[in-house]
Automatic annotation (TrEMBL):
Binds 2 manganese ions per subunit. This is Xaa-Pro dipeptidase. Splits dipeptides with a prolyl residue in the C-terminal position. Its EC number is 3.4.13.9. The lineage of its organism: Bacteria, Pseudomonadati, Pseudomonadota, Gammaproteobacteria, Oceanospirillales.
Length: 432
């Protein structure tokens, strides 16, 4: 691992120590206990689903699979890490990497699940509802203080150089998976085999992905969160959509690419190219002081121009936007904040923690903030042929080219997504 990355991580931890101290003081707390969380078994079973460490715990240690552990933060004192590490011949014992960041903590290995030592007026955050009743009864502290949690969420919205380096590396690893997925598609593989190619090239198990990969062939590319993998390749290959990510030291990449297959209409391939161009234009618009809502509205205006230029809508671009046509061809938001969580925190709150909800006409938008340096966002315009959304338009007089829509419906849809950091002077596209 690069010494530069290690140094950036030490700077990151020092930044958190400086930032937490005034927050705890402002909200009247002497200490903060952060619980890592733990996986819960399936009903009537002893197996658990994949687990992800609580984000504010991960913010300090960068480990995405730590369970039953605690982090105690006090101003002007070293953070205390109580790491659950039982003697267990069923599982590999918990261990920490031999890396410089570990020396920034006082580490306590615990063979049993503990109640953390709480100092003074303490707060506890994390999913503590699942803790044993005996643990909950002995913890005299304020649970999930909303204002403090909002402040910590706001802190996470702005990434340190270490965090941006991690997201960049997660992108690099994910891109290798996307290249392998495209090659598998060219080789006439089915969805499951494309998924396996992605996992192999990006070097990760399916239980480690930051979100369930979306691998959709043909009409499945039009299901926004398509959740299955067909075992066999279809007879005709119209399209592929791959929305798939990777973690690096806890931080997420979230990348989407769409491809025209050999059986797709020529018009679909042209639309894929147009959507790549639209994504690039929107990325260029990322800069400090830019409203993300305004960028989202720009996406709809330029999407309308694409619909008109490619013959899908025979009216004007302004008409397509005003009549809500673009919202039916693209029902989701332009993007979201990205970090330790794929849909990262604080995107729908103002800096003071008050709600900043999505506009009524764009209810699916996950980020409503004005962009500032240090934010990392996704830019992901889409164009889909979803019958349940478009069919009501057939009963209107709006000039939709239904013949072309029907020809393209077998292709499902298109989404192109990059991960972009906001810099002091503009943007840094982290997706190579």
């Amino acid at each position: 691992m690069s010494s530069t990355l290690f140094n950036l991580q030490l700077d990151h931890i020092a930044h958190l120590q400086r930032a937490y101290a005034p927050m705890l003081s402002e909200h009247g707390f002497d200490s903060l206990a952060i619980y890592s969380g733990h996986a819960s078994v399936h009903f009537a079973d002893d197996h658990t689903p994949p687990f992800q460490t609580y984000g504010h715990f991960m913010h300090w240690v960068g480990l995405a699979d730590v369970q039953h552990s605690w982090l105690i933060i006090q101003p002007e004192k070293r953070p205390q890490l109580y790491l659950y590490a039982p003697a267990d011949f069923w599982h590999l014992p918990t261990h920490l990497p031999e890396e410089p960041w570990v020396a920034a903590f006082d580490v306590h290995f615990c063979s049993d699940k503990i109640t953390p030592p709480l100092i003074g007026n303490a707060a506890i955050i994390g999913d503590t509802d699942q803790l044993a009743a005996s643990h909950q009864q002995t913890m005299q502290a304020e649970r999930q203080p909303e204002q403090l949690v909002n402040s910590l969420n706001e802190l996470r919205l702005f990434k340190t150089p270490y965090e941006i380096a991690c997201i960049r590396e997660a992108n690099r690893l994910a891109i290798a998976g996307h290249q392998a997925a495209q090659a598998a598609f060219i080789g006439a593989s089915g969805e499951l085999d494309i998924q396996l190619a992605y996992l192999g090239a990006s070097r990760q198990r399916e239980s480690n992905v930051p979100y369930q990969n979306i691998i959709g062939l043909n009409q499945h590319a039009g299901v926004l969160h398509y959740q299955h993998y067909d075992l066999n390749a279809p007879k005709r290959r119209y399209s592929l959509l791959v929305d798939a990510g990777r973690r690096f030291r806890g931080y997420c990449a979230d990348i989407t690419r769409a491809y025209a297959g050999p059986d797709a209409p020529v018009a679909f391939g042209e639309l894929v190219t147009a959507m790549h161009d639209l994504k690039d234009e929107l990325v260029k618009g990322v800069a400090p002081g830019v409203s993300f809502i305004a960028l989202h509205e720009q996406m709809h205006q330029q999407l309308a121009e694409i619909l008109v230029a490619h013959g899908l809508f025979k009216g004007t671009a302004d008409q397509a936007v005003a009549e809500g046509v673009t919202r039916l061809f693209c029902p989701h938001g332009l993007g979201h904040s990205l970090g330790l969580q794929v849909h990262d925190v604080a995107g729908l709150r103002h800096s003071d923690g008050t709600p900043a909800p999505a506009p009524e006409q764009h209810p699916a938008l996950r980020l409503t903030r004005t962009l500032r340096p240090g934010m990392v966002v996704t830019i992901e315009p889409g164009l889909y042929f979803i019958a349940m959304l478009l069919d009501p338009l057939r009963n209107t007089s709006l000039p939709v080219n239904w013949r072309l829509v029907d020809q393209l419906s077998s292709c499902g849809g298109i989404r192109i997504e990059d991960n972009v950091a906001v810099t002091e002077s503009g943007f840094d596209n982290l997706t190579p």
